[in-house]
Specification:
CATH topology: Cytidine Deaminase, domain 2
CATH class: Alpha Beta
Number of strands: 5
Number of helices: 4
Radius of gyration: 14 Å
Largest sheet: 5 strands, mixed
Order of helices and strands: HEEHEHEEH
CATH superfamily: Cytidine Deaminase, domain 2
Strand order of the largest sheet: 2-1-3-4-5
CATH architecture: 3-Layer(aba) Sandwich
Oligomer: single chain
Strand content: 15-25%
Structural class: alpha+beta
Bound molecules: tetrahydrodeoxyuridine
Distance between the termini: 43 Å
Number of domains: 1
């Protein structure tokens, strides 16, 4: 059973692979599914800046491409350039797409290099929902 520290260490490892030649801001993400499997992602930038892909969405896309269909339960996010590297708004909406009653746990590293957890609905209340009236 992987601990939150294990997940954060995996996010740290993959942040080393970030392709971030424009911002120099590396990010790594590790998603844990109820299957027990983890998938990694890093940010991938582009000379057309707006096309940059965030680490979180890269990790989720990888999980889907690998055929993962269990519940996304945790995500660890790490940047060597920032303490508490929260997911951006777009990534919060992506996480919301795969959220369940369990509420995805978001694991970050705090100022003292300890793991700290937040829950998706806490940091992203009133998300967009495709409800047609
Ligand atoms: N970035 C992420 O990978 N995740 C986020 O949630 C926010 C930002 C990346 C995008 C870009 O490559 C760099 O960080 C600076 O914005």
């Amino acid at each position: 059973m992987l601990t939150n520290t294990d997940l954060l260490n995996k996010a740290k490892q993959v942040s080393n692979n970030a392709y971030c030649k424009y911002s120099k801001f590396a990010v790594g993400a590790c998603v844990l599914y109820s299957s027990g499997k983890t998938y990694l992602g890093c940010n991938v930038e582009n000379s057309s800046y707006g096309l940059s892909l965030c680490a979180e969405r890269n990790a989720i896309s990888t999980a889907i491409a690998m055929g993962e269909n269990s519940q996304l339960i945790k995500i660890a996010i790490y940047s060597p350039s920032s303490k508490k590297c929260f997911p951006c708004g777009a990534c919060r909406q992506w996480l919301q797409e795969f959220n369940s009653e369990k509420n995805i746990e978001i694991i970050l590293e705090d100022e003292n290099s300890n793991c700290i957890s937040y829950y998706l609905t806490e940091i992203f209340p009133y998300s967009f929902e495709l409800n047609v009236i």
